[in-house]
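Re: that chain you flagged

S.,

Sorry for the slow reply, it's been a week of failed gels. I finally had a moment to sit down with the sequence you sent. For the record, here it is as I used it:
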Amino acid sequence: MASADCSGELWQVEVRCPRSCAEAVAQVVAETWQVTPVVEYRPGRSTACVRAFLPSAPPADQWLRERSALRQRLAQLRSAGRQPCRCTIRARPLAKENWAESWKRHFHILRVGPLVVRASWQTTALQSNQCEVVLDPGLSFGTGHHPTTRYCLEELVRRRTPGLPRPFLDAGTGSGILAIAAAKLGYRPVDALDYDPVAVETARINAKANGVADQVRVRQVDLLRLPLRGVRYGLICANVTAPVLLAARERLARRLAPGGWLAVAGILDREFGAVQRAYEALGLVCVRSRRDGRWRSGTFYRPEA
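Prediction finished late last night. Pasting the structure tokens below so you have them in one place:
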């Protein structure tokens, strides 16, 4: 396979598998490339198709390594006591317009309490107590459909106090969905951080498109260099990997106000215990956690005393 980097093409990875293990396969694919895959079920068929879209075709040697890693992780599903999960892996270039049409077929409106998340091509009638975030799918996390992002959206709804603005920090903003949702829900001020300049620009564009550019401050900041002093937040959402959460634990804990909550996501279930122990050692209390497939998310509380 030759390397390709065509501006009009993406790289599509397709895994065909039994319907019974499609969600588990999708989580493995998401973990391998840090993208949100599409899962296609066809009526009357015992198989499903999991597709991931990458920005460009990787070099041949890189693809061989990634495919091998994916096969090893899929094999672990069998060794973990699941039903046999025989998979077929294929990859090919894909025109961007074809990718967009694929997303349109599979992207569903998401509702979390009063929050409605939809794509620009979708329409829905809002009730008086609802607010919407309009966000077209990208090539990575950030549409709200991944379980880790959804958990953070649920915490935004759960922890808000109508009529009492609470400072909010989106640590690792990506598309900006959490910061935009926070602004729509009445959090003030709203800060969004990411080390990736592309993510920062994307979040700013999305905030402007949703009419909250003047309410959301997006900055390029590495969490491992977040100043220990500054605004203390009533709610922090950190949808990042476990190693980053562990390395940044003191910085995030110091920026959490007494009586505030820290929602952490993006953590593999087997890694959550280490994260929990690290934050509890800093005086935080784990008040809630939830497993969704291979992922576990949780919420910590800083006692007021």
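What I noticed first: The first strand starts at residue 9 and ends at 18.

Talk soon,
D.
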